[in-house]
Design a protein that fits this description.
It is a single chain. The protein starts with 5 loop residues before the first helix and ends in an 8-residue tail after the last helix. It is globular, with a radius of gyration of 15 Å. It is built from 9 helices and no strands. 62% of the residues lie in helices and 0% in strands. The protein has 151 residues and is mainly α.
């Protein structure tokens, strides 16, 4: 089976998230690009970079689980995207345990956290939201065994 190229995965992710914005009002695809580039900068594989582009697609209802199951993607990419997809009402402890149990998922989550917790991004939010999110990201890093105060 021939897998989708990274350029094709990027196009699919950009199309799927077209019109979405982040909490700062920026195009959501900027976050996806930052995560994919962050994975690459951390030495991630092509499958991990592809997962970086797609890491929020199922959770945000941009793509379906059925699409992911049938997509021309490697098993590792599919497993990482699934691991990074929070389930409704899922405790953070279960979510982070699944990430740790999935080979290759941690580097993608590190890149995601690094961008989400970027002080410049947090500074553009109202103070209460910024503090709530910063605390959430610190707790997530703790549960993943990462330095809670680093991005």
């Amino acid at each position: 089976m021939e897998y989708l190229s990274l350029a094709e995965v990027e196009r699919i992710a950009r199309d799927a998230h077209a019109g979405q914005t982040d909490k700062n009002g920026h195009p959501y695809t900027e976050h996806l690009a930052a995560v994919a580039h962050g994975v690459a900068a951390r030495g991630g594989s092509e499958e991990q970079i592809a997962a970086g582009w797609l890491h929020d697609a199922i959770e945000d209802d941009a793509l379906t689980r059925e699409w992911l199951a049938g997509a021309a993607l490697g098993a590792a990419t599919k497993a990482i995207v699934d691991a990074l997809t929070k389930r409704p009402g899922e405790p953070l402890e279960e979510y982070t345990a699944r990430i740790l149990a999935t080979p290759g998922a941690l580097v993608v989550k590190q890149a995601d956290l690094a961008h989400n917790a970027d002080p410049a991004r947090l500074a553009s939010l109202d103070p209460a939201t910024a503090e709530r999110l910063a605390a959430k990201y610190r707790r997530t890093r703790e549960l993943l065994g990462l330095d809670p105060d680093s991005a």
